[in-house]
Amino acid sequence: MPIIIVLVAVAAAAGVALVMYAASSVRERAVATADMGQSARVTYRSLADVREQLRRRFEPTGTPVWIAANQNTNGLAADLASADLQLRPYEFRLVQAAVALVFVLLGFLRFGVNIAVPVLGVIGYVAPALYLRNRRGRRLRMFEAGLAASHGADGGTR
Question: Please, what sign has the CA dihedral across residues 92, 85, 132, 114?
């Protein structure tokens, strides 16, 4: 397990280093072009370009590319919409993972190293999905009750 933590830390450090390198190279180009007689607003434009590139990466589905590639967003997105939950599919998956982690930590604190810990983790992962299913069903029943009431108000079938 510690090797995974080290690899994640190294990857995060490399990512920060790349961002800092890109920011410094943009600033150097802006200073060089400002010295050539152009305005200093080039720096702001460069930052706007970086912001625009980031927006394009995240905008098509509202989901980061590395998460969107690993999930079936159509079914889950439809379920979230029908349950009237204002979450994106990847956000719901993160909620599931967070609840599972909390259950695992509580199980570890209560039972120590025991078979109950992974069982609680699975229960924690499934609990948000059960909530989603329950909320969808309740909204569907309310919708059908509304249709039945409006159908009865019409005085029969058309």
Answer: positive
First to last CA, the chain: 66
Indicate the burial class of 124 (C-beta count within 10 angstroms; 0-12, 13-18, 19 or more).
buried
Low-confidence residues of the chain: pLDDT under 50: 39-42, 72-73, 158
Helix (H) or strand (E) holding 155: none
Helix axes 89-111, 73-82, angle to 10 degrees: 80
Output helix, strand, coil percentages for the chain, rounded to the nearest 5.
80, 0, 20
Closest CA to 23 of 9, 37, 43: 43
Single pTM value for the model: 0.48
